[in-house]
Structures are given as C-alpha cells and as structure tokens.
UniProtKB/TrEMBL annotation:
Keyword field contains Protease: no
Alphabetized InterPro entries for the sequence: Aldo-Keto_reductase, NAD(P)_OxRdtase_dom_sf, NADP_OxRdtase_dom
Domain of life (superkingdom): Bacteria
GO cellular component, one term: cytoplasm
Keywords: Oxidoreductase
Protein name: Aldo/keto reductase
Molecular function, one GO term: oxidoreductase activity
Native source species: Cystobacter ferrugineus
Length: 333
C-alpha cells in the first residue's frame, strides 16, 4: 500500500449526524451469492477478511441474498473480527425456492421475524445498520421504522437506514427515528439522486451508501455470459442499448489506460470525487478485485478529469427493467 493510500485508509466518513464512523469504501457482498454467476465460498471469505485487514469496516449484505447464504457466508468471515466491522443488513424481499422475487413484506411483525433469522445466520447479537430493502406500498413507512426503533431500544439494532426510497419517504421515516444513511444506486451511469435526493439528505443530516458504482460491471467491461446472471435481461446490457453502451465503455477504458488506471478504478474515483462525503459500496468478489478498487483511493480524479470523462461516457437505458423501475419509490417524481 502506498503512502498516499495509507493516509486515505486512515480517513473515515461519518454516516449521518448520528451514525458510526466508517472506512471511505464499503464492501457489498451480494455478488458472492450467485447473483452474477458462479462463486467460490472460500475465496469470498478470504476476500471479506482481506478487506477487513486493509481497513474496510462497512460490510453490506441482505437476508434475501442467496436466501440466507450470504449472511451465513459473512458470519463465517467475520468470526473473531466482529469488533472491526459494521454490518449493514437489508431485509423485506420475499423469495421463492426457485429463486423468484415475490414482493416485499415490512410489517412490524415481519421485521421482528426477519431480524431473528439474520442475527442467527450472522452469528451476532446486534446489527449495526438495519434497513428495509424496498418500500412496501401496503405498509406505512412509519410502522416499519417504528418497529426497527423498538429493536434499537431492545439492543438488537444500533442504527436505522433506508434503501431506494424517495424524498417524501425519507422525510417521513426520519421523523420517526434518526436515519443514518440511504442506500441508493449512484455512478457516472446513474446520476438521478443528484437532483432531489442528495439535497434532502444533506438538509436532514443523513448520509448515503452508494451501490452500483460499476453499473453492475457494465463500466468495467463485464458482460453476462453464464446461466443465472440476471444482467442478461437488464436494459443497459441488452439489445440496442447494449450495443450503444459498448462505445462509452470503450471510451472509459481508453481514459483509464491514458492515466495508468483500470476502468474500475476510474468509475470508483469518479464517485469519490463527485460525492466525497458519501460512501461507495463496491461489490468485489475476489481479492484481486478488492486490490483493484482499493487502488482508486490513491488515484483521485481532477476537475478536468471529471469533465473529460463525463463528455465521453453516455450510458443508455434504465438501471432496471420497466416492472422494477415502476415499483422503485426512489424513482417517483
């Protein structure tokens, strides 16, 4: 690790006005449970442990990633290291035995049921940040946050977060209990939160953890090739959009090559430069990928770099298919 990277590694970012101090990058573990093709549990565990050794503190998972597989994996990886990490857990998504997604359930009684299983799978007594994965349209957000607030009082949860919700829901939730961060997709390909969501977060003293920094591998040149890789049906990878986006990806690769960086480092450095007070969550599945993304901390982009990059990277297509976009509270205007 270079001297500059060491200095960066010592820096922390506070999640909201009431949340914990965390390393400036988080590790997202969803990809370790088969969402993007084959995985290797042993390598996944080594990757999580290597991240912790390198100073990463925020580990992000969901109880529905691999139908509990991801939480059990994280639990094995952090055994004996619990005091070095903050666990961010999403809940509420309903899965079928065939892997299907069957809506969301954030009723208070369901919240308490979900966390009971998460605590067991993770092997911990408390979860640092607990959040509904999506808004449940049949349950007022006040009821869901109130139930998590009860878990805070009982000592099972330390902080409350949100995921993929819009400004009205953020305000309503924050009135019930302080929210430390909103998890939202953000990258050079997905800049929607800049217009309305980020200003409201700043006003309320709420941070954000930013996922999709690589636009599910699109920006790094990754393509869905294996059965089970759900990206094959997503708008940015398929059809006319997929063909158009190859030009932007090639331009980003040239930009990276000219600066002695990898495409992943450029995509991450862009987010760090645009939102220095927020925390990107990167989905490294291997130690090699982890080394790559951590290298971005030592290679900040200048304002001129940002302008140059944004002039050549123009991504076509929505971030999810139409049915999913319709149900995203964060996309409501």
């Amino acid at each position: 690790m270079s001297t500059h990277e060491t200095k960066q590694a010592k820096r922390t970012v506070k999640l909201g006005s009431t949340g914990p101090e965390v390393f400036p990058l988080g590790l997202g573990c969803m990809g370790m449970s088969g969402m993007y093709g084959k995985t290797d549990d042993a390598e996944s565990i080594r990757t999580i442990q290597a991240a912790i050794e390198r100073g990463v503190t925020l580990i992000d998972t969901g109880d529905f990633y691999g139908m509990g597989h991801n939480e059990m994996l994280v639990g094995r990886a952090i055994e004996g290291r619990r005091d070095k990490v903050q666990l961010s857990v999403k809940f509420g998504a309903l899965r079928g035995p065939d892997g299907s997604f069957n809506g969301n359930d954030t009723r208070p009684i369901a919240v308490k049921n979900f966390i009971a299983y998460s605590l067991k799978r993770l092997g911990v007594e408390a979860i640092d940040i607990y959040r509904p994965a999506r808004l449940d349209p049949s349950v007022p957000i006040e009821d869901t946050i109130g139930a998590i607030a009860d878990l805070v009082k009982a000592g099972y949860v330390r902080h409350i977060g949100l995921s993929e919700v819009g400004v009205e829901t953020i305000r309503r939730a924050h009135k019930v209990h302080p929210i430390v961060d909103l998890q939202i997709e953000y990258s050079i390909a997905s800049r929607g939160p800049e217009a309305g969501i980020f200003p409201v977060l700043a006003e309320l003293g709420i941070s954000a953890t930013l996922y999709g920094v690589f636009s599910r591998g699109l920006l790094t040149g990754s393509k869905p090739t294996e059965a089970g890789d759900w990206r094959a049906h997503q708008p940015r990878f398929a059809g006319e959009n997929g063909a158009k986006n190859e030009d932007s990806v090639n331009a980003l690769q040239r930009f990276a090559h000219e600066r002695g960086m990898t495409p992943g480092q450029v995509a991450l450095a862009w987010v760090l430069a645009r939102q220095p007070a927020l925390v990107p969550v990167v989905g490294a599945k291997t130690r090699a990928q982890l080394d790559d993304v951590l290298g971005a901390l030592a290679r900040p982009l200048s304002k001129d770099d940002l302008v140059a990059l944004e002039s050549v990277v123009k991504i076509s297509g929505d971030r999810y298919d139409p049915a999913q976009m319709k149900h995203l509270d964060s996309e409501r205007r």
